[in-house]
Amino acid sequence: MARLGSTLLRFDSLPSTNDLAREMAAEGAVEGVSVLARTQTAGRGRQGRAWSSPAGAGLYFSVILRPALKPAESTVITFAAAVAVAETLATDFNLTADIKWPNDVMTGGRKISGILVETAVEGERLQYAVLGIGVNLGQRDFPGELRQTATSVFIESGKQVEPDEFLSPLIDKLEHWYRMAISDPRAVTERWQKLSSYARDCPVRVRLPDGELDAVTRGLTEAGALIIELGNGERREIVSGEVTLRARGES
Q1: Closest by alpha carbon to 58, among 3, 17, 100?
Q2: Is 154 helix (H, G, I), strand (E, B) or coil?
């Protein structure tokens, strides 16, 4: 079983580290092969959103995974990655980290890291997964609307952190939580809930394709769905959607 990052391919510029890793996985690259870029010209996050990737200012990293999981179980990889990033920020860089369901890592109420997992499925078999992690490290400011919603290690700590300096401890934690995702997924979701202020008793607004719901969070299911409770006491399990904080008492 190859260690994650045991083969690390470095590029000055790529459209997307996930795209290259996905091409390599489709051609048979083994688990653990990783791609690192100094900048991305077409980086992206969940739901096709662009991910700002200025040269040398962030960690832009993807790794090929071939987990012994069913396709429906693969969402736990996202939670494992979020836990690894949050623990790296807290343990190695002394930053308070929070996780917003399902995969945004926050510091000071603003997004500092995003995670994107893309899978290839054949029948009931997961052929491979590509895990992409972006972490804002050296940005001193952000353009446009991002100024209100994004932050970086430099903004929060005043420290200039190089991508390799962040990647080294991250790989150790990612290795642990990824293996745990395969052997004991419940441990991953339990750790995620301990690290997330959003997980329980948090007033949220959930944006779904057919409208919005105001609710309070009640934890995760074993599969990683977000449990919410509506004002009438009804509970629902959310498997996809956009979650934002709602002020307590706001209707």
Answers
A1: 17
A2: helix
Q: Per-domain residue ranges for the chain?
A: 7-195, 200-245
Query: What is the model's pLDDT at position 251?
Result: 46
**Residue 231 burial (CB < 10 Å; 0-12/13-18/19+)?**
exposed
Confidence of residue 50 (pLDDT cuts 50, 70, 90): low
Residue 33 pLDDT exceeds 80: yes
Q: Is residue 71 within 8 Å of residue 184, measured between CB atoms?
A: no
CA dihedral 96, 101, 103, 108 (to 10 degrees): -30
Q: Which pair of tokens denotes residue 20?
A: 């290259």
Distances (CA, A) of 228 to 75, 234, 235, 237, 240: 18, 8, 6, 6, 12
Instruction: Classify 7-195 by CATH class.
Output: alpha beta
Span 200-245: which CATH code? 2.30.30.100
Rama region for 101: left / alpha / beta (φ>0; ψ in -120 to 50; rest): beta
Bond from prior residue into 102 cis (ω within 30 degrees of 0): yes
